[in-house]
Here is the input.
Amino acid sequence: MRLPAYAIRSAVVTLTLLFGALPARAEDIKVFSSVAMRAVVEDIAQRFEKETKHHVVTTFGLAAAMKGKVEAGEAFDLVIITPAQIDDLIKQGKVAAASRAVIARTGLGLMVKAGSATLDVGTVDAFKRTLLAAKSITYVPPPGASGIAFQAIVKQLGLTQAVEAKTKAGASGDDVNANITSGAAEIAVLPVSEILPVKGASLGGVFPADVQTYIVMAGATSNTASAAARSFLTRLTSSASDAVITAKGMERVKP
Here is the structure.
């Protein structure tokens, strides 16, 4: 039996409306990120997932380790590490150059066990006295970005030998956190964004302005990243996320 033309048109319109109303397919967005961005990424990812139904799958670690994963050919959609590392991946053709975006920066701080007194670090001289008075110091040495910066500052202040003698190094931020919360070390050096979320510890003070070093974080997508992955990077850089950036101990980088 042949259907009338008006019936066929009606069916086409109905199917168009039906399938047009279906939501876009939810995707997994695989993110490799420096642990310095962990608190920010987790917060914004939760909001992004609720709004878009996409799923953000995260792996956190030292920026150098995350860069290594990309270089080794592991599948990813978005990588968040330092700008210099992103630029190197661009030269290697590992990420989409046009997607490169600076997200935020965080300064270095001193972490102490919860309940400890605030540290005197208001001036460079006070900062030096605090480091010299500490019985033990823990941090992640190079290739950790904060460790590279801290060693440079210590050298600038002429304290390399004194600090090395009391250093209890950690292989990761988690190791450093454990050194503080367990009492194995008195003071830790980490980016402020990594200190604030640690349970059982608190921010003892930030480095004085004259010796402060900022850890800048940038992102780039893979060459085959989906629109969903690009949208998540846009969300991270959007002014709509500024409140989260500030609350997590970071700040936008002014042009």
Remarks:
- The chain is about 40% helix and 20% strand.
- Confidence is low (pLDDT under 50) at residues 11-23.
